Amino acid sequence: MTDTPDFSFDLLATDGAARRGRVVTGRGPIDTPAFMPVGTAGTVKGMLPEQVAATGAQILLGNAYHLMLRPGAERVAEFGGLHRFMNWDGPILTDSGGYQVLSLTDLRKLDENGVTFRSHIDGSYWEMTPESSVEIQRLLDADITMVFDECPPYPCEEDEAKRSLDLTLRWAERSKAAFENRPGYGLFGIVQGGVHDHLREESARRLVEMGFHGYAVGGLAVGEPAAERNHTLEVTTPVLPTDRPRYLMGVGKPVDLVDAVERGIDMFDCVLPTRSGRRGLAFTWGGDLKLTNARFRDDHEPLDPNSSCPASRDYSKGYLHHLFRSGELLGWVLLTWHNLHFYQELMAAMRAAVEEGRFADFAAAFRERQAKPKQAGA
Amino acid sequence: MTDTPDFSFDLLATDGAARRGRVVTGRGPIDTPAFMPVGTAGTVKGMLPEQVAATGAQILLGNAYHLMLRPGAERVAEFGGLHRFMNWDGPILTDSGGYQVLSLTDLRKLDENGVTFRSHIDGSYWEMTPESSVEIQRLLDADITMVFDECPPYPCEEDEAKRSLDLTLRWAERSKAAFENRPGYGLFGIVQGGVHDHLREESARRLVEMGFHGYAVGGLAVGEPAAERNHTLEVTTPVLPTDRPRYLMGVGKPVDLVDAVERGIDMFDCVLPTRSGRRGLAFTWGGDLKLTNARFRDDHEPLDPNSSCPASRDYSKGYLHHLFRSGELLGWVLLTWHNLHFYQELMAAMRAAVEEGRFADFAAAFRERQAKPKQAGA
């Protein structure tokens, strides 16, 4: 492992606040802006890893909470880590589990030390702390470990947001102390603070003082209006160092990604392309299409005849409509695949737009095309 | 279309009653013994057509009943036929729908003309006759059309079996009259007669007198013991011409296929590899494995490290166990794929055994290996 590169970030180009960069990990590079498909329980639902890779995805997201409960972090370690377990060679970022255990509102108890909670699978008692979360992520062999944080709900009063932020910062310190530095691996801090500008600034500043390999913006994608999210990004990203990647957690729709890249974000994860795919919703350059709608029944055209993705190119919308109407598995597979490919196409287009200094034009044209189908109705 | 070959069957080798042959269709050859994956509603559940083709499958089975109801045979025709609709270039055989509509015991009425029934999807009334079934299959562009038949239940008294057989023969005559002969396309008759030897012989003889491109053995795989099924094959296949393919409908488990090839059968279809795959059952050379069983939780080995099938080779049994325990789509996909590949491997092994004149040894060794895991328990 002597030639494993250090975890790092190269900023290759900027255009306004938008950035084109490359994260270097021990398992390969991640071109940014990057979208990470979600593989919660050790699988991107319905997709073969080689299909995910063929979409252009360079990194997946896994989840410490789900994998800790089943099959168990130690078991995954015995299988050689999450990469070997799920047959994915590229880098993996793992969620710390904080968001998930704190979502178990009836089943959990939070204190300074961490969270005790009951498994959603079998009701068994568990404890999760900054130290145990980092250890679980080490057992999973995550290339990017996330600090254990508290993610307050939206809306959140300022004093509650401040209390939560302070706890998250103490947990970030403990997470960092627990994290074992190894070449090629990184630890990301998480900015909190609700939608209170000075709390976001304080959170970001104090995290940067601690020093992390990358910085996530957490506590968004929890129901806030897009304008509040965008404003929060505008006050947060300027506080973050330019030489570290910035990851907006849990966002979002295609236009949300464009909004966030425009405000200096480099990395994303979201269940939308996969979950929506299983529900019959296709994301396209021309906007969203609900393929279960009767208007697609006799549509002989594929989602994108020029795509390199078989799911987008080789099956008519009428056939996809038939699969969803018939409850056929292949519909879920094809539309998940199409959506993941579209998200990667979008990221590639944004990278090119930044490189070529035309991001604002790209973003304006993209928003206009995305808005059209909603006006036309569905 | 001037160079489309006539539908034909070449008998390439025999070993006892077992046959190695090749069906020629307008959309390519089918090496026999052949297994046809079931694609009831225009999709082999959970599988991409290219994955199915990569298993070695040369022909799929579709279903006139299901496709007639949804999306509709005329609609499929407007999409360019079932092949273009579902993105499968090879030959397709379609079930006539007889078996399905007659399974709707509470919803159907049978008379000389045909069957009136209510759709299992929306309760709408439909009529199906030998003529309409053949027309539906023509609209689907089936390479092999099946005559519309009545499939009696098991057990069935002799007089009832005789009545049903006579009706099926009259329907076969009408199906043949309705079938449009075209180069590369074939029509198969269906032998019925329950497990009554002289009725099977009579049914086969009278069908052969009418003349079809191939002959199916129907009315089995309906709950009869394997010994009765095998005996019925032994009295039936000698009546059938050697220069036409013989198709055993709806069978079966791996050992059932070996039993039937040993008795002169060339073609099969069955939902077992796909349906069992979705239920966590893997067919292997060493017998069946129920992957949901806890004994696979820490099994780091794949189903078959030497397989050319990614599903069999690239994922541990422990990972498959995890996917099934977690209700993950990918488990259904991978095990369906593995099972379809195993079935094709089995057919290829039987073809080689016939060619090399060692089918009896192959069959004996196969049965012994298949029986072992059941003795060991699971």
Automatic annotation (TrEMBL), chains A, B:
Record keywords, A-Z: Glycosyltransferase, Metal-binding, Queuosine biosynthesis, Transferase, tRNA processing
Region RNA binding, annotated ranges: 250-256, 274-278
Amino acids binding substrate: 95-99, 149, 192, 219
InterPro entries for this protein: ArchSynthase1/Queuine_TRR, TGT, TGT-like_sf, tRNA_ribo_trans-like
Transmembrane segments: none
Gene Ontology CC terms, in alphabetical order: cytosol
Keyword Glycoprotein tagged: no
Taxonomic superkingdom: Bacteria
Quaternary structure and interacting proteins, as annotated: Homodimer. Within each dimer, one monomer is responsible for RNA recognition and catalysis, while the other monomer binds to the replacement base PreQ1.
Protein name, as recorded: Queuine tRNA-ribosyltransferase
Species: Thiohalorhabdus denitrificans
Lineage start: Bacteria, Pseudomonadati, Pseudomonadota, Gammaproteobacteria, Thiohalorhabdales
